[in-house]
Amino acid sequence: MKEGTQSPLTELDEQTCLRLLNNHSIGRLASSLGNKIDLFAVRYVIHKGKIYFQTKPGDTFSSIVVTRKVAFEIDEARFDSVKQVTVYGTAHWYPYDVDIDTELLEEARVASADVMHWVEITPEKVSGRELKLR
């Protein structure tokens, strides 16, 4: 980079990261099971500072039950910049028959005939970056 020019990559403060998380509803969950790392797209909602989404028993659910440590990410792409927010935290699952404030979490509910479990992520670290494209 030339001297006197500004880096196209900047760190986002925590307030900006939280605002971006609240403004979106689709994110990616990163989890690991053994030596395998997986990424899953999820529909989510923020409620009382925590991230909630639904999943059915399987790989996502198994990795959450075993490791509980996860990363969650969202992106916001615009014509002149891309913002990325990553949340590192601990996941907790709720049995399918537990009712957790369904009115507030309705927008994250997945329409499925399968048994679905709610997962809650308690953030431990939130960070973000913005890449200027112009």
UniProtKB/TrEMBL annotation:
InterPro entries reported for this sequence: Pyridox_Oxase-rel (IPR024747), Split_barrel_FMN-bd (IPR012349)
Xref: Gene3D superfamilies: Electron Transport, Fmn-binding Protein, Chain A
Domain of life, per lineage: Bacteria
Name the UniProt record assigns to this protein: Pyridoxamine 5'-phosphate oxidase family protein
Lineage per the UniProt record: Bacteria, Bacillati, Actinomycetota, Actinomycetes, Micrococcales
